[in-house]
Specification:
Length: about 220
């Protein structure tokens, strides 16, 4: 049996932007087509988000063992644990790969809420999703920041709030195209699931390379 490196997707974004709900939406879509995931959730002090995903994805829906939703209390600035010194996360990734190497197709690493400077160390994540929300105003994309500019996929969440906060989605689309050039972005509503399939499709295409799960496992055996 050949030991494989399990692909890793990092998800970052400000507090309240919808990182946890995004994961709760696309993991079931990946599961439906046979891809199996583990989740590492970083936060400064609490493990509340991990507890929520463990309940919603593992306990209630049985999409993964409860042990594959892991909460890390970093005890400091949340982006440090995924960028400057990802050793804590890398240690957990190594444990997951050692114990579940042939069972998993993807490891999802959620960063604690931070600002628009969040990025992931390339040693930790192969693919970086950054999420913002419309409630921050339609100026958000053009405020730039490393997360918005450099992520592999930009998610603009809570599109249903646009008329209530005076945000113009056409302005956000224009600015996202201008700043990100050819890099993709997706408008979503994590509460209703609108746009989530496009997110899952990007992960399958760019991270899992369109290979059905059984083919992935055969190639690595």
């Amino acid at each position: 049996m050949t030991f494989k490196r399990i692909p890793r997707v990092g998800i970052g974004g400000p507090v309240g932007s919808g990182k946890t709900m995004l994961i709760e939406q696309f993991v079931p879509l990946l599961s439906q087509i046979g891809y199996r995931s583990a989740i590492i959730s970083n936060d400064v002090v609490s493990k509340e988000d991990a507890d929520r995903m463990r309940r919603n994805l593992a306990s209630e829906r049985g999409l993964m063992p409860e042990s594959l939703v892991i909460g890390l209390a970093t005890g400091g600035c949340p982006h440090t644990a995924v960028r400057e010194d990802p050793s804590m996360n890398l240690s957990v990734v190594e444990d997951i790969e050692s114990a579940h190497n042939q069972e998993l197709d993807l490891i999802i690493i959620e960063s604690g809420g931070d600002n628009i400077t969040t990025t992931f160390s390339p040693a930790l994540a192969d693919y970086f999703i950054y999420i913002i929300d419309v409630a921050g105003g339609d100026k958000y994309p053009r405020k730039r920041g490393l997360g918005i500019e450099t992520c592999d996929l930009l998610i603009i969440n809570k599109i249903d709030l646009a008329p209530h906060v005076g945000a113009d989605l056409k302005i956000m689309e224009r600015d996202a195209k201008l700043i990100r050039k050819d890099k993709p972005f997706v408008f979503v509503n994590c509460k209703t699931g609108e746009g989530i399939k496009e997110v899952a499709d990007n992960i399958v295409k760019d991270v899992l390379f369109d290979l059905p799960p059984k083919i992935n496992k055969k190639l690595n055996n």
